[in-house]
Amino acid sequence: MVTPADLAIKDLGPCRHPSPVAEKLGEKATVYVGEADKVLFDDRLSAVLADASGARPPAFELAGPRNRVFWDPKEVRAGIVTCGGLCPGVNNVIRGLVLTMAQSYGVPEIFGFRYGYEGLVARFGHAPMRLDPRSVEEIHRMGGTVLGTSRGNQDPHQMVDTLEALGINVLFVVGGDGTIRGAMSLVRAIEERRLSIGVVGVPKTIDNDIKFIDRSFGFESAFAAAVDVIRSAHVEASGAKNGIGLVKLMGRHSGFIACAAALASADVDVVLIPEVHAELDGPCGLLAHLERRLARHGNAVIVVAEGAMQEHCTSSAEPMATDLSGNLKLKDIGLFLRDRINAHFRARGVEATLKYLDPSYHIRSVPASPSDSVYCWNMARNAVHAAMAGNTEMLIGRWHGRFVHVPMPMAVRMRKQVDPTDDLWMAVVEATGQPLSFC
Amino acid sequence: MVTPADLAIKDLGPCRHPSPVAEKLGEKATVYVGEADKVLFDDRLSAVLADASGARPPAFELAGPRNRVFWDPKEVRAGIVTCGGLCPGVNNVIRGLVLTMAQSYGVPEIFGFRYGYEGLVARFGHAPMRLDPRSVEEIHRMGGTVLGTSRGNQDPHQMVDTLEALGINVLFVVGGDGTIRGAMSLVRAIEERRLSIGVVGVPKTIDNDIKFIDRSFGFESAFAAAVDVIRSAHVEASGAKNGIGLVKLMGRHSGFIACAAALASADVDVVLIPEVHAELDGPCGLLAHLERRLARHGNAVIVVAEGAMQEHCTSSAEPMATDLSGNLKLKDIGLFLRDRINAHFRARGVEATLKYLDPSYHIRSVPASPSDSVYCWNMARNAVHAAMAGNTEMLIGRWHGRFVHVPMPMAVRMRKQVDPTDDLWMAVVEATGQPLSFC
Amino acid sequence: MVTPADLAIKDLGPCRHPSPVAEKLGEKATVYVGEADKVLFDDRLSAVLADASGARPPAFELAGPRNRVFWDPKEVRAGIVTCGGLCPGVNNVIRGLVLTMAQSYGVPEIFGFRYGYEGLVARFGHAPMRLDPRSVEEIHRMGGTVLGTSRGNQDPHQMVDTLEALGINVLFVVGGDGTIRGAMSLVRAIEERRLSIGVVGVPKTIDNDIKFIDRSFGFESAFAAAVDVIRSAHVEASGAKNGIGLVKLMGRHSGFIACAAALASADVDVVLIPEVHAELDGPCGLLAHLERRLARHGNAVIVVAEGAMQEHCTSSAEPMATDLSGNLKLKDIGLFLRDRINAHFRARGVEATLKYLDPSYHIRSVPASPSDSVYCWNMARNAVHAAMAGNTEMLIGRWHGRFVHVPMPMAVRMRKQVDPTDDLWMAVVEATGQPLSFC
Amino acid sequence: MVTPADLAIKDLGPCRHPSPVAEKLGEKATVYVGEADKVLFDDRLSAVLADASGARPPAFELAGPRNRVFWDPKEVRAGIVTCGGLCPGVNNVIRGLVLTMAQSYGVPEIFGFRYGYEGLVARFGHAPMRLDPRSVEEIHRMGGTVLGTSRGNQDPHQMVDTLEALGINVLFVVGGDGTIRGAMSLVRAIEERRLSIGVVGVPKTIDNDIKFIDRSFGFESAFAAAVDVIRSAHVEASGAKNGIGLVKLMGRHSGFIACAAALASADVDVVLIPEVHAELDGPCGLLAHLERRLARHGNAVIVVAEGAMQEHCTSSAEPMATDLSGNLKLKDIGLFLRDRINAHFRARGVEATLKYLDPSYHIRSVPASPSDSVYCWNMARNAVHAAMAGNTEMLIGRWHGRFVHVPMPMAVRMRKQVDPTDDLWMAVVEATGQPLSFC
Which chains touch A (3 or more CB pairs under 8 A)? Predict the structure, then answer.
């Protein structure tokens, strides 16, 4: 259950300064966001009627520029850090943060920390980069992050040491689940020292699996890149007798990329995602389904999310390891399926040709699509507006088509996943023609 | 003011048949949409609190498959017609309609009417095409519409004649504002004859200017194509001393494409849209602003929506003509600006080089992007689900991130426009650095 | 040494028929190719002067339409077969063969054999497809081959059985080195039965390693696709501290794709090809060079052709296996280098992050680029003109910018390779800055 | 007639210095180009036999690095100037010139002159840019020219003043026909002052119409961009009853882009080029042909080169004007045809829908394709090698697949055009199915 308190945003204090944005644009030019501008957590009619007790239903604070700001912009020294794996659009976000701070607010000093949270720990020796409008002007044309990145969190106290040493009072953190947890520890450490440093997040997840973000930045660019690879798998599968194209896509816990890429490409016959259990053997298993498909159509394209079917390739005897970000190290379901499918058809005496494609790094490194470029610009703008208003321990979310403020603890409370009883999976089943179970 | 009654969807009667979709997928597999599944018209907290009178706030019916359907699928003879200008994704919509009808419901006969509403009028002599899964399998790889299109409405009674003659009981209409009005006349004529024929719309507007559609299909593909053209304008402008790139984009009444393309490209200095008045002459006019920009930066890129600044290029003496769709014929603001800017700099003795790009047909004809492909699939699926449930005189909308049913009269009541005091225009102003007025 | 005799083209007899092409276009419209239209094998001045003995220097027969043809077009029954791995443009070639035969010559019957040479052997049970202009109209928009393909040769006598049974008198073979050898055996078998069946080749090699083909079709499309992948490797390498991007590209015996992709991308620091020996260990080895590069620049991108450095990953104890096409099965130099580089930096206590990309199937499956589309059209046209003139056991080549006829035995006599003392490798060395040996 | 003397390259004197390239790469590593390395002007066997008189046939000097160079690289002060209209790849050429000079030869100072020849004339006040490897590293990712450009020549004496003032001894000129003539005047002026300044050209012509350049840089990128536009025209034409897509492409005097784009797109029904006369009216005219085509197929796509059919839209009464580059100002054949076709069908009472696309600026501004990127790199490298060897008044050409040195007077002696009796036009006629005359 979500209560109104869960959605309350922390701030560093009242907004004492007139906003330079408001000064530039005039009082009437823009509707500044006020106290009552909140978005209902659940906007179905039934939800509101149920709550007709008179209690205020939970609602998110709307993102956007405020009439008054907490910080005197001339005294802001901002920092930006990018963490975790690459994702299309990170450079667009960096660019948007810098341009909005410099041009809309007149923030004089902006530092880019290098190689993720390592850049905030002195002993790694990564000197921060100075960022200004000129240095970020063209960076969105390339994928990746000009700041570099690394996985894993660092000691929050050492990170605060660096922030204090440089006089940083606003820090933007671009990262996923683990990075947000790291930012929450950092806020704890800041509060322990009674410092006034705002920490604002721009959520990054190529898997689109963070709650309260209708769509994460880079997600559309990623599945668009996947469509090209699926087309290649389809072409390879069509070119051989009993040709099978097997494509492994991102998706550790959530199958959004696999689903969206399959819907967009229209060339996929089977989609395997972590949220939907699938048998491998037996008459209701993938292998038997594949055999029937080849017999009828002569070829097949399978898309598997990296987190799917893990129960088939792990053994209870062997506990799963974790990586630097604390993520469980998954078994490689792509190689596993490749080998099992090949073995199956060899055993059945059927000549089949499987081509396996694993385009992960290629997809993560593409530049942001035009649509993601717009989206990143708005994420970045709103993150700056939120930070200037003195908010902290929050991130920019997207709820029912509007940018909102999401408390960090809410964002990491649970993961967004494909609901196998809901619309997206239904669309996939209708589009691929795959049965709900392989029977 | 919108009342609950405004959002009520017409249907042809109660749903008497079990749904084949439900039979295939099982009762529990999917959450079928029920009576209470509506989406609040306004999901801001303040709106709901204000309406705490006990009255039900207005809410849209959720789109999606129903447990029971109105039509016996085996008796459905469906028609599809595409109207108006080209827009990326029309072929994807046709494909999605045909595949969902044939594969999810087992509809046996589907006709594609040729060249818009002309195809429904016998005297034009356009024989309809038979459509089945095989004939539409690959059509989404190309832009345009395999059915052809035309502008303008036709006599509704002659259209009903054709529907009756062919025994069509479900008609899907893909088109914009004018097309929807045509469909409403058609529904009148059907009702006059007391026929049971459902008319369901898939709203098409490359300008993204239909209300209750967060984002129209093809819109993202269109502004993505525009970004390439703007980059060319930027390259041309940078290559010449006092280089000016002028790009005319679609947008008769609404500047959404101009705004989105400018945000996505990051190369634009001035955006001109119908919703925002701009002076041409005088110290606060575009020409003076342009001169200042060239003096400081040496080049400039201008994006102008086709409906912008019409007051500058029309005279009250000469009343505006209308085209076959009943749209006012706009003056060509692109050529007008090209000539006025050239004349201005000539008069001022400043050597400037203006390159004018008008990519309209190129943009309209691109294939749907991966993201639009997913979106078109969902628009089409939900249109079939709505039609099978017996609904009529409605279209598929998208409200706060969910697919909903929108009564046709609501959809054409007013046009969606860029609000110059709201977030999108604010984002453009921050991104381009252009002043609110050219002063 | 090449003698004029080596370049003589076999034909099936004198050209008895007026050409329908000539009839359509008129005598003067086109310069028909005559006896004296040959292209010098070596067009350097020194070569011709050296041969001023009066002997005719070796010269290739020019490709193109003849005034008279050997076959009566109305009696031609043609076959097309595509063999070996996928390569961009195969569908364009099929399309060009069919359209030129049907439209320029009026050939009435064209068969497409399925799945390579298997399709010519009855026991595999692959029925041939009928091909006509309508069925091939759109196939060039997709990569791959609509006929399917397989590796390896088949028994020539069983293949002739099929040709005789179907009454085929002209066979087009699209394939590489091994396929051409197969076609030569087929010609032997045809001659033994004293049949009049022409066999004309369209050489296909994504590696661009067939002699007398300045540039093979699909090669430009392939290295263009590789450029995208290299950019991703560059982005990944730049995003991490001591980031290394390692890309394995095609090139079993010849490094043309690796060289061209490196030159085109401008993001590559080291290129490894089969023709140039490279040490791995020691002060003049790749590993030491890489370490120096990381110390100076912080990241590196390596492109390795699949056939490079095989001496490092094979042992004399273990003889190399061969695949169905008779090609030696190479060791996977990509995985080998990945592991050796990782081990090296681990042993040196240097934290480095290597990302490995192996895009082979993706690259092979892309559609032909516009430039390759033109090229494929010309290869196909000229193959038809050559076949209609009664030539056999020959293929279409490209020599010094002109299409020529190449005897099959000449084409397989040796392989085209990058000459480490010549211009291409020099251009790579200048572009990457890599030393001639890693010292 | 071309004589050996015509192909002799001017140089500034003997090569007195060892080449740093040779020093770096070692004597044996690369085959340095020697005196005898020339390419026969005509490599057809018949040509050589005819010349068996013992006379040396004309031959081009091969491009490439020399063992010894004329200039002491440390004393070279180089300049680069780009002139005329934009063309894909100019930035790649600039980058290649700078990198090869700086990295292969160690040239210490390189100036980029701004806005074409204007940048060499003091009174325009365009300060030159300093160029070094860092400043050009990323410029190839964008189209256009970072130096800017302008049309037209300037007074050669004023240009030499600037070269002398800056101490430039090597000047690279990137431009077309008119620019090369300007460079020849510049060489005259240099010679009059008895200065030792080398002038080396990199020929730029998006129309591919300079002699002795098999293929000009940017040409492939240009027609590839045109293919996209033609596809849009095809989609528009297919979407309307009697739909006509009309695309105007570059090609003032030569139809190479129109031909190549038509061959590559496979969607074109009529190609109109300057080299082939076409009637407009009458039974053998374009209009009658178009009417027959619509009656049979329902739609048509026409590609017209800008210089085609000029005789139809000019009158002898009105003499043609010239632009700054001295080019005749062509009448707009695109608008002319659009209006004449529309008028024709209106007069005939046939409802037809014509969509006109004029993508010129868009095509000129695209970045170089991967294949052009390789080509530009080689053009630039070889220009530097030629300049360092002391050559002057020459440009880099491409003859029979090899880079060669072409004397400037030879290059402008005549224009390269499509030969209507030769292979390219034949390929177009076969591909489009258009008749040789519209009868």
Answer: B, C, D
